[in-house]
Amino acid sequence: METITRLDLGHFTRPAEEWDGPHARVEPVLGYLVRHAGVRLLFDTGMGTGSPETDAHYRPVRHPLPVGPDDVDLVVNCHLHFDHIGGNRLFPTTPVLVQRKELAAARAGGYTIDSLLPGVRYEELDGEHEIAPGALIVPTPGHTEGHQSLVLDHGDRITVLAGQAYDFAHEFGSPYLPWLDRLGELADGRPARVLFAHDRDLWEGVLPPPR
To answer: What is the Cα–Cα distance from 59 to 11, expressed in whole angstroms?
Structure first.
């Protein structure tokens, strides 16, 4: 059976200066438990245990992951900022798929909470990677150079777990980013549903064909 279950992993408060807004904004932290083509995967793992400096800056409220190592075969991180990888260490023997350039940037320091990186079985990818029939990781750089999304092909439609490729559903597709052409190619005129890491709303429509 194919399912996508959204997980509420808490929220944090982003200061106004970090998004050029008039005030601070509260953002949900969302993960997704996916069962597709016989594979069980977890897309992002929440904030986990932070650092005093990070907690003072973002005032996070954390919700525990409702799944454990026995429940998933793979973990996929859209990128390696602290609010997406906090639970990775709860899966010490589970492969965690990440783009090679993203892991290199994180390990260089000053990128995430460094204490969240060790003790994880990272498997480095260079570009697209098929997890299972109809489950494809696609690079979606922008928020970070190594950002990636997961495309699930259901036959009559596709679902994209877009992570933080865009912050909000209403922003999806604007500004134009070149990888949108690849999503349009994969959709091939079929309806698409796009889910996000920091927005409970979703985008639904037909992706334009490649430019």
So the answer is: 9
Q: Tokens standing for 139?
A: 């690079």
Burial class (CB in 10 A: 0-12, 13-18, 19+), 130: exposed
Cα pseudo-dihedral 201, 206, 209, 211, rounded to 10: -40
What stretches of 38-143 show up as alpha helix (H) in DSSP? 52-58, 82-85, 100-107
What strands lie across the sheet with 25-36, from one edge to the other?
61-62, 3-14, 25-36, 39-43, 74-76, 96-99, 122-125
> Rounded distance, CA 147 to CA 33, Å?
19
CA distance 163 to 79: 8
- pLDDT by residue for the chain (211 residues), tens only, comes to 799 999 999 999 999 998 888 999 999 999 999 999 999 999 999 998 878 999 999 999 999 999 999 999 999 999 999 999 999 999 999 999 999 999 999 999 999 999 999 999 999 999 999 999 999 999 999 999 999 999 999 999 999 999 999 999 999 999 999 999 999 999 999 999 999 999 999 999 999 988 8
CA distance 26 to 119: 30
Tokens of 191: 């309806």
